[in-house]
Amino acid sequence: MVCHRLKIVLVLVVALLATMIVTLPGILDHIRIGLEFRGGTEMLFVAEPLTPSTSTPSFSPMAVSRDQLLETAMILGERANRLGVSEPQVNILGANQIRIQLAGLSPDDNLMASLKDSRELPVRLIESYSEIVGGVLGQNDLKATLIAGGIAICLICLFMALTYRGPGLVAVFCIMTFLWLLLAAFSVLDATLSLAAIVAGVLGIGIASGANILLFERTREAFLAGQPIAQAWRNGFRRSLHTILDANATVLICALVLLLVGIGPVTGFALTTILSIVFSLVANVLLTWMLLTLCYGGRSDIRNVFERTQVTARSGKSYGGHAGFDYLGRGKLFISASVGMCLLGGIMVSAVPLNYDIEFKAGTALDLQLAGPMTQEQAISVIAAAGIPPATVAIGGQRQNQIAARFDDVLDTAAVDAVVKRFKAVYGPSVSFAENTADPAAARHLAGQSILVVLLALAGTFLFILVRFDWRVAVASMAVVANSVAFIITVFAVFGLEIDITFIAAILIVIGYALNEAIVVFDRIRENLCDRQNVVNASLRQVQRRSIYTVLTVLTGSTCLFLFGAEPLQMFSLAIFLGLICATYSSLCVAPKLWLTMRGGAKNAMGHQSTDCS
């Protein structure tokens, strides 16, 4: 019987591998690569009525109708095609914005003037943001990002295989299936594989691995409690499934809010995160469970499948014991430290303004890459020679050959060309560049959208936890979020690190992950209360191994992106790194103590959900 099951597993694995190998080349050929990797020009327009109204301010979402936007987008696409632009992308964002992406196109005044011409259009177009990416710089960013992603995937797979042995190898196969499904979805949906999308995919692997870790840890506990391996797999899956669904729901809510609000630069991140959650449930939960059930479901022996040495089975459900770190005993100290961190962040932000990038404060950002290294003084001298004084100039890159210049004024195409030509005259024609420009109205609009996204995500996740648990758990979980976000902002404020639009995506990932961790903790507490084991410390010790392993997988992705990825990813990766560490700490050390304090003498600690022991 066991041999028959293993044959079925072998057939399924071989069939899936053959399907992935055969279809992968075609999938990769049909995936649309983002503008930031191919080079070209991107413009964001605000549509206003042809007859301006004094009562309708700029950027008002009620200024134009949906039909007018659709007609305008169609006309702009036809214009770009007539001008010979290859695969122009024209997308409607929100209620009154249109984004045009022209891959492989360098700025040309005549072409841009033709696209911006409002004649024959049902609306008037106002350019609010533009970005120009050099082809060489884009290719370098793509190479660096793929290398970082590859290293992260290899490390996560190695960790799973070494930690969980046979089940870990099954998890590695399911991770490969997850990646294949994600790429196939991008090909079918004709979605753009942007820098943000690749980042979300790499982080999605960590989140997907977290589902496997939770399943394996619950199974391991059941085995150590004396259950035969087949029964342990069934109980492990049953007890972990609802926790996985609840935890992933919080990340899904954050990603849906980001996608629905429609902040252009990070919509690819939101779409990829949503797809990652769906395919994670398919590949890293259902497929993993099916394969492992076939492998071990027919066995009645008590054999350790996780460790090389036989472990003596323990009796009882209180695996994790009562001895160990006293989380609750030090709870007041942890809460005091968290409050102190929040106060420090507030003081720093009020004393020293945050270092916002161009998207939030308007102006022009010019990033250049040279063939060799240079100093900050040399870069400032070259820019000054072009007659355009910068607000700030920073040097970075592994070879100190990347220049980030920021200008408080909005530079036109001629001014940007003057700076770039000056660098080419001094350092040769190999200079590549990327340029972002945002006017004050666009910056204010984006800032308002960003605040709205965060508030909606918090409201949605709070309501979800309120329904699934009770108000005490919801409040304690929000404390985990507040502590994590405050920690990130404090570090960025103290060191003057730059905050750009990807920072919002990083904050939402941290919010989702922080709530993910909190739900896992409180779900275990609720389960133990159902079993009349009202010992919160024991519950925390039971989940601490899972929490540490899960954060390690996600941190692996963010660390690799920070160390090996493209320069634009560094601050994004750092924000996630800081947030995940603080979220793990807060979910174990702060939230349970806060929850117990609010509980007081209430008999039913988890509200109406406390009787749900399934």
Structure at a glance:
The protein is an alpha+beta fold. The chain has helices spanning 2-30, 35-38, 66-82, 109-116, 135-189, 195-224, 229-261, 267-296, 331-351, 358-361, 376-385, 413-427, 440-468, 471-495, 501-530, 536-564, 570-589, 591-599; strands at 32-33, 40-49, 89-93, 97-103, 123-133, 192-193, 355-356, 363-369, 392-396, 402-407, 432-438, 498-499.
How are the secondary structure elements laid out?
Elements: H1 2-30, E1 32-33, H2 35-38, E2 40-49, H3 66-82, E3 89-93, E4 97-103, H4 109-116, E5 123-133, H5 135-189, E6 192-193, H6 195-224, H7 229-261, H8 267-296, H9 331-351, E7 355-356, H10 358-361, E8 363-369, H11 376-385, E9 392-396, E10 402-407, H12 413-427, E11 432-438, H13 440-468, H14 471-495, E12 498-499, H15 501-530, H16 536-564, H17 570-589, H18 591-599
Primary descriptors:
single chain; 614 residues; alpha+beta; Multidrug efflux transporter AcrB transmembrane fold; Alpha-Beta Plaits; 4 domains; 8-stranded antiparallel beta sheet; 11% strand; disordered C terminus
Task: Report what the structure shows.
- By secondary structure, this protein is of the alpha+beta class.
- It folds into four domains: 2-34 and 147-296, Multidrug efflux transporter AcrB transmembrane domain (Multidrug efflux transporter AcrB transmembrane fold, Up-down Bundle), CATH 1.20.1640; 38-52 and 61-132, Alpha-Beta Plaits (2-Layer Sandwich), CATH 3.30.70; 331-355 and 442-611, Up-down Bundle (Multidrug efflux transporter AcrB transmembrane fold), CATH 1.20.1640.10; 363-438, RRM (RNA recognition motif) domain (Alpha-Beta Plaits).
- It is built from 18 helices and twelve strands.
- Strands 3-4-2-5-11-8-10-9 form an eight-stranded antiparallel beta sheet, with helices on both faces. Strands 1-6 form a two-stranded parallel sheet.
- A hairpin with a 3-residue loop joins strand 3 (89-93) and strand 4.
